[in-house]
Design brief:
It contains 21 helices and 24 strands. The model is unreliable at about 335-410 and about 425-440 (pLDDT under 50). It is of the alpha+beta class and about 650 residues long. The relative contact order is 0.09. A hairpin with an 8-residue loop joins strand 4 (about 120-130) and strand 5. Helices cover about 35% and strands about 20% of the residues.
Length: about 650
């Protein structure tokens, strides 16, 4: 039987719209907070009762709503934030649809009190579902707006039964408010649950107050073990903090990205940061970061999802590349810095059980060159015993795979010590003498990692620098130095490919074939030769030399998946890096190998100019710093 088409009652349309906007109490808080921030507020108070199911109150000191616009403000699709289609294409505010208050009021007992600076008193408007609004009533109130949402879903019991416990619902609100606090340091916030203060932060207008606020929200450990970043190119600016690789998490609970001040959950951006940490993070661990992206509003579409958590970029690949390169550059800087200092004694072991290397402060992004007179083997005139391209070429006839013995001489400590000895003779200085090595003299030219004093159990190097004691895991450190050299050499020879004796046929979906067709040039550049055998089949005829014995079908599948998401892939680089990492592990100095003082110092100098030398190839730290104050505290000196 055909049903007659009828216009929905306004209250029912509002409740349907509420289903898109109001998922749970945290959704209400999000919408009200966005309105408060858009109103120019510098102080916002959030008062919650019973996880938000009983009561949600958001009060701000923004510019308020005039009496004549109050009823219009709670109507559907009424807003002051967009006027035309061009405004919608370049939204500059957090909220803009003009349906939040109408939707929320349709499923709650709702009250709004607001005072505009042009009014002599505040005005109150209230309703209990179904959009039945009374007349605005005068009341006492300061300039700003206070919205009260009581008995959420009282008239939609089918939705109310899906609410979780008050503790769970408030946890969602707390995490939301925390993200908003992080996004707006110029605004003070107060969060109260069941008359108990949970969070309170004050406006941060200088570096000291900003650091204090960051410590409150992210923890002191994050502040001590993160790098402040700031990059800018063309129309995009990147700023914030990225955690050192050794400050890692078992979950992704400390990862925040904001685009033009808006909280976003974007797979592309998260994947870009993940790739930036790919070569320095311990397996199964996750980085911590707080990143702000600013770009012209017309280059990002925020009108993708009703909850406004998702965004779409005009050029997503460009944003991805810039973010990945910037974060990767930050975490890959050599260890030498102007202000590098050791981690506090309490944070040498973090909750995850992994050692933390020197906790570089926010200013540590200003890197300097190696100390004059202590050149490394990577400087002008330095050379290594083997060229990776030559070794690859020699091994092609043997199946195309390299073993660690083929590469052992690509970098060795004996060679480094020879170079170090030559420099030592040239400068006529000996580590530890009064000219250069005496820390008590306060010589500013002492290298960051100091000079070796001894070797402990054939495993650790004990070095003295200006701050105190440096403890180095010699195998882990040398492994990173060797690995970075292998990678640099591979970059120059990565196009070498090897034909397969028996071409490999692989089945794909038509959508995957379409992606391969779009990126054929990229596959060729990476050393792969593929041909189409049909609408759902490809034939692999050649692969990169180092990957000849890898899982080629799985690798090609992963590459196509990456291209579908980000428009590019690092799968080949990751697989090759894994092989080079294994070879570097076997080619570096082993435990119980006795090194001379010259060899130990040569390794320290090489670490100071090697990217990512703070971590070994597996993401573990290579060194820790103990200051004189920390050493004194161990023996209760001066107490």
């Amino acid at each position: 039987m055909r049903q007659i088409i009828e216009q929905l009652p306004s209250y029912l349309a509002d409740q349907i719209a509420a289903g898109e906007v109001v998922e749970r109490p945290a959704s209400v808080v999000k919408e009200l907070l966005e309105n408060a921030l858009d109103s120019g507020a510098t102080q916002v108070d959030i008062l919650i009762e019973e996880g938000g199911a009983k009561s949600i109150v958001v009060a701000d000191n923004g510019y308020g709503i005039p009496k004549g616009e109050l009823l219009l403000a709670v109507s559907r699709h009424a807003t002051s934030k967009i006027k035309s289609g061009s405004d919608l294409a370049a939204v500059e505010t957090l909220g803009f649809r003009g349906e939040a208050l109408a939707s929320i009021s349709s499923v709650s007992r709702f009250e709004v009190v607001s005072r505009h600076e042009s009014d002599s008193a505040a005005w109150k408007l209230s309703a209990e579902g179904e959009g039945k609004w009374g007349q605005a009533q005068p009341t006492a109130g300061k300039i700003g707006t206070r919205v009260s949402v009581n008995d959420l879903f009282f008239n939609t019991p089918a939705r109310k039964k899906f609410l979780r416990t008050a503790k769970t619902e408030f946890s969602q609100i707390d995490q939301l408010v925390k993200r908003v606090m992080l996004s707006r340091p110029e605004v003070g916030f107060k969060l109260v649950h069941n008359q108990k203060m949970v969070r309170q932060v004050f406006t941060a207008n200088d570096s000291a107050s900003l650091q204090k606020r960051l410590s409150q929200l992210m923890g002191t450990s994050f502040v001590q073990q993160s790098l402040a970043i700031e990059f800018e190119t063309q129309d995009i600016k990147l700023s914030g903090w990225v955690g050192l690789p050794t400050f890692n998490r078992s979950q992704t609970d400390m990862q925040y990205i904001f685009v033009n001040g808006r909280i976003v959950r974007d797979r592309l951006l998260s994947y870009a940061v993940k790739q930036a940490y790919a070569d320095v993070l311990y397996h199964g661990r996750h980085p911590a970061y707080l990143i702000f992206i600013e770009m012209p509003h017309d280059l990002v579409d925020v009108n993708v999802h009703p909850a406004k958590y998702e965004v779409r970029f005009a050029n997503g690949r460009w944003v991805y590349d810039f973010l990945r390169r910037s974060v990767r550059e930050a975490v890959a800087k050599p260890v030498v810095s102007e202000t590098g200092t050791g981690a506090s004694l309490e944070s040498v072991i973090n909750p995850g059980g992994f050692l933390n290397q020197s906790a570089t402060s926010q200013e540590s992004m200003r890197f300097q060159a190696p100390v004059e007179g202590w050149q490394n083997s990577n400087s002008a005139g330095g050379s290594y015993n083997a060229n990776l391209g030559e070794i690859i070429q020699q091994r092609r006839e043997d199946g195309g795979m390299l073993d660690s013995s083929s590469m052992n001489n690509a970098l060795n400590v004996s060679e480094l010590s020879g170079k170090y000895a030559a420099e030592q003779e040239r400068t006529n200085a000996t580590p530890g003498n009064t000219e250069l090595g005496n820390t008590e003299s306060g010589n500013a030219n002492m290298p960051m990692l100091g000079f070796a004093k001894a070797q402990l159990h054939g495993v650790f190097i004990l070095s003295e620098n200006q701050q105190g004691l440096v403890l180095v895991d010699m195998h882990a450190a040398h492994e990173r130095v060797v690995y970075e050299r292998f990678k640099a050499q591979w970059q120059n020879d990565r196009l070498i490919s090897q034909p397969l004796l028996v071409p490999m046929a692989m089945a794909f979906e038509q959508s995957q074939i379409a992606i391969w067709e779009e990126y054929q040039a990229l596959f060729a550049k990476l050393g792969f030769e593929l041909e189409a055998l049909g609408p759902e089949q490809l034939k692999v005829t050649a692969v990169p030399v180092l990957l000849a014995k890898s899982d080629i079908p799985g690798l090609v599948n992963d590459m196509i998946s990456d291209l579908a998401v980000a428009g590019q892939t690092q799968q080949v680089e990751e697989r090759i890096n894994h092989i080079l990492s294994t070879m570097a592990c076997h080619g570096s100095v082993r435990a119980n190998r006795q090194l001379t003082i010259a060899e130990m110092n040569a390794l320290l100098r090489e670490m100071e100019v090697t990217e990512r030398s703070d971590q070994c190839n597996h993401g573990r730290p290579t060194w820790v710093q103990l200051s004189m104050n920390q050493l004194d505290s161990l023996f209760m000196r001066g107490q």
